[in-house]
Amino acid sequence: MPEAQNNTSSAIPSKSSIDYKRLGTMLLGVALFAMVYYSPDWSPALDPKGKAFALTHQGKASIALFLLAATWWVFEVVPIGITSIMIGVMQALFVIRPAREAFTDFMAPSVWFIIGSLVIGMVFTKTGLTRRMAYKMLSLVGERTSVIYLGCFAMTAFLTLIMAHTAVAATIFPLLMAIYSLYDETGSGKPTKFGKGLFIGMAFVAGAGSIITLLGAARGAVALGFYRDIVGKEITFFELSYYMAPVGFGMVLLLWGMFMVLYKPEKKRIPGLRERANSLYEKLGPITRTEIITLVIVFTAIITLSLRSFVPALSSVDKSGIILLATVLFFVFNILTIKDFEELPWNIVLLFGGAMSIGFCLWKTGAADWLAINWLGLFKESHWLVFVTGFAFFVMIMTNLIMNVAAIAISMPVALVIAPYLGVSPEVVLFASLVTAGMPFLFLVGAAPNAIAYESKQFTSGEFFMAGIPASIILMILVTLFVWLIWPLMGMPILSK
Questions:
Q1: What is the pLDDT of residues 8-63, one digit of tens each?
Q2: Distance separating the N- and C-terminal Cα atoms of the chain
Q3: Which of 205, 269, 326, 336 is the most buried (most CB within 10 A)?
Q4: What residues contact 368, with CB distance under 8 A and at least 6 apart?
Q5: pLDDT for 441-494, tens place per residue?
Q6: Is the separation of the CB atoms in 165 and 217 below 8 Å?
């Protein structure tokens, strides 16, 4: 009997067990918020014309809130979606913004676009299209895990040439899950180096590919229109791709090399993979009616989204409406059921809702303007190369915190005012910022593909952040090389006459 009592008592968890690391990290975030929120007023920022931009109490509070949210996001002290909810709660409780504005951002059109993209990924999985694509790709690339990495990255990058990188990530994600299931023979689903590299790499490469054409993301078209209004010069679709293609594809190859070093697969080869892939593909049989309907709906949506850049009549049609129509049609044709819809990764949806809310908070309270003017003011008397790369670095950091379009819209007017004094051409300011705006490698909230990749459960947000540091360094080195040497050789004007 005493022995039985001992066994019973040992099975009961200790009531005094406290995760001090988690508690300490939570308190660190709270402490950062309190330090900034209750600090004395900060000095105004002065733009190149001498105009003062005061940081309001709400602006300072929004910076404090971001520090709190970033700490909790990186260390995952609570689920990332719950941290996002806290962003809205804190804005309401501390009267940083009206509650209606703070919580309305959670259902912004961009968030709905992400929901539609996730539904497309779900329907590809349910119909078997992802398995069909995965097995066909593996039969082509073979058994070497290094080539599988490259094949997956290349496929992701090429798809972003014709469709939004969010939709690409949602479509590719289930395909990568199918590929990983063949690597993880035990079916444990436990994180591996190959899994981390495969999914983090997909997110990074989706960003790298999305800068090449105007179809990869909305930021390109918005930035070109913004540039035209300020500078009075038009940048064409093909001119953008001419300068961006070598940067985007070069970054894809560099990222592949980086992941082969950081997350070198445990296995060099997967013996018999090609034969298994061919066998599994044959078992799928001929393409079904449901798969054909799915493809028609998805490709119609993709073509319509692509035509928005060329057909004036479609330019005013919101992209979220187009992709959500596809979602409705999946239910109309009984391809999905309400049970499928309930299984969407709502944690990821909430993550992006919180990202939109904190982004608008920094923007509308003037905190982002204040940060941009202070940062760019540091380079107003520097060498032109330092100015351009410093500006690109600022956009890279800001695009991890707020919407990339907002990051450009906030910082570019200031940069274009400073540029003439340093003899810098506006073109290089535009292109350098568009490169870094497309590749937020540090935070999951920086881009939808980052959050979609997180759903694989192969990595933590902290591991994503650590992988993003060398990737961001590589990005800045590449941008510097293009600004200093390669773009001038390609004919881009760098210095104004």
A1: 444 444 455 788 888 999 999 999 999 999 999 999 988 766 778 899 999 999 99
A2: 93
A3: 205
A4: 362, 398, 402, 406, 407, 410
A5: 998 878 889 988 998 999 998 999 999 999 999 999 999 999 999 999 999 988
A6: yes
Spatial distance between the Cα atoms of 311 and 299, rounded to a whole number of angstroms: 17
**Distance separating alpha carbons of residues 200 and 458, to the nearest angstrom:** 9
List the one residue out of 336, 369, 348 whose CA is nearest residue 447: 348
Burial 388-423 (b: 16+ CB within 10 A, else e): bbbbbbbbbbbbbbbbbbbbbbbbbebbbebbeebe
Distance in angstroms (rounded) separating the CA atoms of residues 130 and 298: 13
Question: Whole-model pTM?
Answer: 0.77
8 A C-beta contact, residue 26 and residue 77: yes
Of the given ranges (32-46, 58-72, 112-126, 410-424), which has the lowest mean pLDDT? 410-424
Dist CA 293 CA 330 (whole Å): 9
Which of 156, 202, 200, 247 minimizes the C-alpha distance to 466? 200
Beta bridge mates, 52: 46
Bridge pairing between strands 52-53 and 45-46: antiparallel
> Which residue in this structure is represented by tokens 């013996």?
271
Which residues contact residue 229 at a Cβ distance below 8 angstroms, ignoring those fewer than 6 apart? none
- Cα separation of 213 and 407, whole Å? 19
Long-range contacts of 456-459 (CB under 8 A, 24+ apart): 456/173, 456/176, 456/177, 456/180, 456/195, 456/199, 457/189, 457/191, 458/180, 458/191, 458/192, 458/195, 458/196, 458/198, 458/199, 458/200, 459/191, 459/195, 459/196, 459/199, 459/200
What is the SS3 assignment for 379-415?
CCCCCHHHHHHHHHHHHHHHHCCCCHHHHHHHHHHHH
Tracing tokens 């993880």 back to the chain, one arrives at 184
**Cα-atom radius of gyration of the chain, to the nearest Å?**
24
Q: Rounded to an integer, what distance in angstroms lies between the CA atom of residue 380 and that of residue 385?
A: 12
State yes or no: pLDDT of 108 exceeds 50: yes
Q: How far apart are CA 378 and CA 420, in angstroms?
A: 16
Cα(195)–Cα(173) distance, rounded to whole angstroms? 12
**Between 237-262 and 145-159, two packed helices, what is the crossing angle to 10 degrees?**
160
Q: Do 145 and 270 touch, CB atoms closer than 8 A?
A: yes
CA torsion through residues 138, 142, 144, 147, sign:
negative
List all residues 6 or more positions away from 352 whose beta carbon is below 8 Å from its beta carbon.
84, 110, 111, 114, 445, 448, 451
- Outline where 333-460 has alpha helix (H): 338-342, 346-364, 367-377, 384-399, 404-418, 426-437, 448-454
